[in-house]
């Protein structure tokens, strides 16, 4: 029988668990704080709990903790990219970024991805499995430990489609923003989706204050279909209706992500159509110069083009920023570090463990 995953339990669930175990109710809170506030890496670190109790927990529950197998640090801006090994030997990547307003961590939500976006390295080998809530939290906890720095913002923009792993994502958000845990403000959490319309409606009903980012990347259905297979399922009109609903229900401004691909979606005409889509909504547009991956022949738009695109949006009173390219000198694009690791390990099994070195 597989053991229950204790770190993915909400405090209420843990209280019920402790009752079934015949333990006092307050044990749940103690244990929860050790896991999520103090971010213990094992039951044995929970020093004010009796040895018997810790042993009982060890026999009853699975306790996840990640091992860092690779870290790359940008010499340009201090961005750090981590490759973590999960208990089943799969690997995921996460990024630590320093901004003026605080430190931000970008986490993965799945091992691989099945959405198939053409410019994205995370999807090249398809979906391996979903991450548990604990494994999403663990990425933040491990980075806090390794950097010794506080994390104030979390973006779910790494490998995977978060809304394709909906239940675990919700559990993750609730624990992450719980006052008995790390207590990160919901307003500092962003979830990025390629646009799973029914799930966007569901998310709007969850009574959360998180930011929803939509990967739009095109201004017509035809162009979007060229870049993102999901566009065959949901039209831009359906996406815009779902965004409008999200704003109406939550009061949270939508972010549109628009990766500029040279000669594909960066013309004046594209900008004009994007204005038409964005104007009726309360939104912010994040332009991302595409980060070329060697498996595809997409190229970045020229700097002049990017500026012209931005100006066109601004002239039409659209709130727009060009995403600063963090860690340009390390494998920047989503999924590149993991992919490099997998390919390298087909040749050799040698991995180094930075926690124990
Ligand atoms: N599945 C989610 C999260 C993916 S990654 C989503 O689709 O939103 C976060 C953002 O990076 C998405 O907008 C994604 O389309 C974009 N992205 C992925 N690979 C990229 C690349 N090589 N260059 C630029 N943007 C990329």
Verbal overview:
It contains 11 helices and 14 strands. It has 357 residues and is of the alpha/beta class. The strands form 3 sheets. Strands 3-4-5-6-9-10-11-12-13-14 form a 10-stranded mixed β-sheet, sandwiched between helices. Strand 5 (91-99) and strand 6 form a beta hairpin. Helix 1 crosses helix 2 and helix 4 packs across helix 5. It is globular and about 70 Å long. The site of S-adenosyl-L-homocysteine has 18 residues, from strand 10 and strand 12.
Bound small-molecule species: S-adenosyl-L-homocysteine
Q: Provide the low-confidence segments as ranges.
A: 348-357
By CATH, the topology of the largest domain is: TIM Barrel
Q: Which structural class should the secondary elements be placed in?
A: alpha/beta
Number of domains: 2
Strand content: 15-25%
Helix content: 25-40%
Shape: globular
Alpha plus pi helix count: 11
Please provide the ordered H/E string of secondary-structure elements: EHHHEEEEEEEHEHEHEHHEHEHEH
- CATH class of the largest domain, named Alpha Beta
Distance between the termini: 33 Å
- Total beta strand runs: 14
Rg result: 21 Å
Just name the CATH architecture of the largest domain.
Alpha-Beta Barrel
């Amino acid at each position: 029988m597989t053991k229950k995953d204790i770190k993915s339990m909400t405090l209420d669930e843990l209280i019920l668990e402790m009752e079934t175990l015949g333990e006092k109710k307050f044990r749940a809170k103690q244990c929860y704080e050790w896991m999520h506030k103090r971010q213990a890496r094992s039951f044995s670190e929970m020093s004010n709990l009796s040895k018997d109790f810790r042993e009982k927990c060890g026999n009853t529950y699975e306790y996840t903790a990640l091992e860092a197998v690779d870290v790359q640090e940008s010499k340009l801006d201090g961005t750090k990219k981590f490759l973590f090994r999960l208990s089943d030997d799969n690997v995921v990547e996460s990024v630590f970024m320093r901004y003026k307003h605080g430190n931000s961590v970008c986490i993965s939500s799945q091992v691989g991805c099945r959405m198939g976006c053409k410019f994205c390295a995370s999807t090249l080998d398809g979906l391996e499995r979903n991450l548990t809530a604990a494994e999403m939290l663990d990425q933040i906890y491990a980075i806090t430990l390794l950097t010794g720095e506080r994390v104030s913002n979390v973006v779910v923009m790494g490998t995977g489609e978060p809304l394709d792993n909906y239940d675990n994502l919700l559990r993750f958000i609730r624990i992450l923003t719980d006052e008995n845990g790390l207590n990160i403000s919901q307003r500092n959490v962003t979830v990025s989706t390629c646009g799973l319309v029914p799930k966007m409606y569901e998310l709007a009903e969850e009574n959360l204050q998180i930011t929803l980012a939509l990967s739009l990347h095109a201004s017509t259905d035809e162009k979007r279909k060229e870049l993102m297979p999901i566009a065959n399922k949901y039209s831009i009109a359906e996406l815009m209706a779902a965004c409008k609903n999200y704003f109406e229900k939550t009061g949270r401004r939508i972010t549109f992500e628009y990766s500029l691909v040279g000669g594909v979606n960066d013309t004046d005409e594209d900008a004009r159509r994007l204005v038409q889509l964005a104007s009726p909504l309360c939104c912010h547009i994040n332009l991302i110069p595409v980060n070329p991956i060697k498996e595809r022949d997409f190229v970045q738009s020229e700097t002049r083009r990017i500026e012209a695109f931005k100006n066109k949006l601004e002239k039409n009173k659209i709130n727009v920023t060009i995403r600063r390219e963090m860690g340009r000198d390390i494998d920047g694009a989503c999924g590149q570090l993991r992919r490099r690791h997998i390919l390298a390990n087909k040749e050799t099994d040698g991995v180094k463990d930075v926690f124990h070195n």
